[in-house]
Specification:
Elements: H1 7-10, H2 14-19, E1 27-31, H3 40-54, E2 58-66, E3 90-95, H4 99-112, E4 116-121, H5 127-138, E5 144-149, H6 161-169, E6 174-177, H7 180-187, E7 195-197, H8 212-218, E8 227-231, H9 240-247, H10 250-255, E9 258-262, H11 270-278, E10 285-288, H12 297-303, E11 306-309, H13 318-325, E12 330-333, H14 338-341, E13 348-351, H15 355-367, H16 371-381, H17 387-398
Parallel strand pairs: 1-2, 1-4, 2-3, 4-5, 5-6, 6-7, 8-9, 8-11, 9-10, 11-12, 12-13
Length: 400
């Protein structure tokens, strides 16, 4: 980072990271999706910016003017209709597929000379864009770069993934891994750069929990012995098919439960609808095939007694942190970082990746009337996942 350094040193040797330290951290730029882009990464970036500001730092967000070309985005829209968060300086400037834009944004960042750039990395597709911007931004200056890494190796592999991620990692000084599995993945690409394990904080920017009766009324749902919730966009790795098979278990049927599936299908929904029909679940499963606006999320969690994440693979999940915020016990599968988050038997269930195991947990929760005790466990457990912990971890990493 210092003037006259070799290219290797500019791109993040450990000695440079340890020695060339600004004495204070005052100015931060977040290079990440933000409003009006939608989704968990945008929302959590905005929440991180708010926490940094609350701790007295100057913060600006550099977001995307074009995040994904339309042919690469499986959803209906990339944009949110929700109001913009108040008090945040968001500049929509990054074009993910335009190399001339990367050079322009990198030079602008370099001229601003922040003490720290915090970027998000969640998809190798972003590696060339972000890696190039960061190389220009750091050139000849003292700015450091920390990457909050949602995924280093994606759930669904494509040609070039490892090459793009390696290129990105070369432009970064240190990393936040929100699960041990991601920490291990980062170590496949670098052994000398510092990596801090800091669990994903709760999503506490979706409003307070709505009561069950209020939520059912808002969603126009009838009373039932209990509602389960599968929340978030649907892709094969999220295992919705397993949950539908668990709903067809005769023990679960006898409980009279209903399942709310709230999220946009990023895969073909026909196989899921066939599974519902073939198992006679039409009266038990409510499909809301749409992106859920921020202001409505509270009602979906408010209606449910139990949130289920039947994932086939995972790193960490923002859905868990939504459930913690709304004080909902969970069923999660033993994949990736999910078992690190949920305390089995106290805050929910950690089960095998199998429909019978998911059904076992559902039956135990309702038959043994565990909701009250587990809600108390979740209420206590969510204290582990504060935004102040995330910021303190970033500050510590910045000083290494």
């Amino acid at each position: 980072m210092g003037r006259g350094k070799s290219r290797h040193q500019r791109e993040g040797s450990q000695s440079e990271f340890s020695i060339l330290q600004p004495k204070t951290l005052d100015r931060v730029i977040l290079l990440s999706p933000a409003h009006p882009l939608r989704g968990g990464i945008a929302s959590s970036t905005e929440r991180l910016a708010q926490e940094l500001q609350q701790q007295g730092l100057s913060v600006r967000i550099y977001s995307f003017s074009l995040q994904y070309p339309s042919f690469l985005f499986p959803g209906k829209t990339q944009y949110s209709d929700s109001p913009a968060p108040e008090g945040l300086d968001i500049v929509a400037i990054v074009n993910s597929i335009n190399p001339f834009n990367w050079w322009k944004v990198g030079k602008r960042l370099r001229s601003e000379a922040p003490d720290l750039i915090i970027t998000r990395y969640w998809l190798p597709f972003m590696g060339p864009c972000l890696g190039t911007i960061l190389r220009f931004a750091r050139r000849g200056g003292r700015t450091k770069v920390i990457a909050i890494t949602d995924n280093a190796i994606p759930h669904e592999h494509r040609p070039g993934d490892r090459l793009f991620t390696r290129y990105f990692i070369g432009a970064v000084d240190g990393f936040v891994a929100m699960s041990r599995s991601v920490e291990a993945d980062i170590r496949q690409f670098t052994t000398h750069k510092p990596v801090a394990y800091i669990p994903h904080p709760i999503y506490d920017n979706y409003g307070p929990l709505a009561g069950r009766e209020e939520s059912l009324q808002y969603l126009s749902l009838p009373p039932a012995p209990g509602y389960l919730l599968f929340f978030g966009f649907i892709r094969a790795y999220k295992g919705l098919g397993l949950l539908l098979e668990a709903m067809a278990d005769e023990r679960v049927r006898r409980l009279g439960l209903r399942l709310i599936v709230a999220g946009e299908f990023y895969d073909d929904e026909a196989p899921y609808r066939k599974l519902i029909r073939d198992n006679g679940l039409e009266g038990q499963v409510i499909l809301k095939n749409a992106y859920i606006p921020n202001e409505e999320v509270r009602y979906y969690f408010g209606a449910a007694s139990l949130a289920v994440q039947p994932y086939l693979s995972a790193t960490q999940s923002g859905i868990s942190q939504l459930a913690y915020h709304f004080e909902k016990p969970m069923v999660v599968t033993k994949v990736g970082g999910l078992p690190e988050i949920v305390l089995h038997g106290k805050e929910g269930y950690v089960v095998a990746v199998a429909a019978p195991a998911i059904a076992d947990a559902i039956v135990d929760f309702f038959q043994e009337k565990r909701e009250s005790d587990m809600v108390a466990g979740v209420r206590e457990g969510k204290k582990r996942f504060s935004w102040s912990n995330m910021v303190e971890g970033i500050k510590t990493l910045y000083q290494k």
